[in-house]
Amino acid sequence: MFHVGVCDDDADVLGKVKQYFKLLSLSTNYSFDVHCFSSGEQLLQHYKAMQGEYTYHLLILDVEMSGISGIETAQAIRSLPDRDVQIIFLSSYPEYIMDSFDVQTFQYLLKPVPYELFQDKILKLCSYIHSSPNRFFTIKVEDDQVVLRRPDIIAIVKIKHSLAQNKLKLITSSREYFINGTLQSYSDKLGNPFLLIHRSIIVNLEHVRRFNANSVVMSSDEEYPIGRSQSKAFKDVYAGYVLKEIQGRG
């Protein structure tokens, strides 16, 4: 499932875009959770309320709105910073195309947008996200494909129950997902900065807040045990991760 934010001060446009996504869900294997906003200020207020938990894969912004413009809204979102969200601008005025480049725009569409063009651009965007494993990670939850931002994943924990073989709980900044598979397979798929610290736990080193020889505390305040055999390896890998992060900022 892709999470979409649509921002336009024209209620008719909001309704049409929402209908387009509904048609797209019916004709493809993709599904979309669409939230509508009538102003840039309203969208930014939503971002503020999320307190750094950025959940949108895609934003569709009208360029000219009452209040702050779509481009100003995008600039504020990029400065938060939310660099992963893909942005598509809608406008009746082609002269704003050059301004949109400054906020890493995926697409600039001129109104009125025919459904066929909308479908083509959105499908290309969905394909792009699925082909960006370093930024996004797709999991299967029942019959749905859920696209997660890799930095949002905090940990994956094996469910200990006799009737729950190969059942895992994936924990993100905003919610939990129950998935099938083995920890080793997810450890192999995710790679750095994810680390198997216990036979039943994978953690994202980005979310480690403190640790000792026996346990680690994550950004969610959840505490997980470190296996005895993994204790030294965890310290070495985490030290290397921190050093790399420092050098990357330098």
From TrEMBL:
Residues 3-126 form the Response regulatory domain. The modification 4-aspartylphosphate is found at residue 62. Pfam families: LytTR, Response_reg. PANTHER family: STAGE 0 SPORULATION PROTEIN A HOMOLOG, TRANSCRIPTIONAL REGULATOR-RELATED. InterPro entries: CheY-like_superfamily, LytR-like, LytTR_DNA-bd_dom, Sig_transdc_resp-reg_receiver. Keywords: Phosphoprotein. This is LytR/AlgR family response regulator transcription factor.
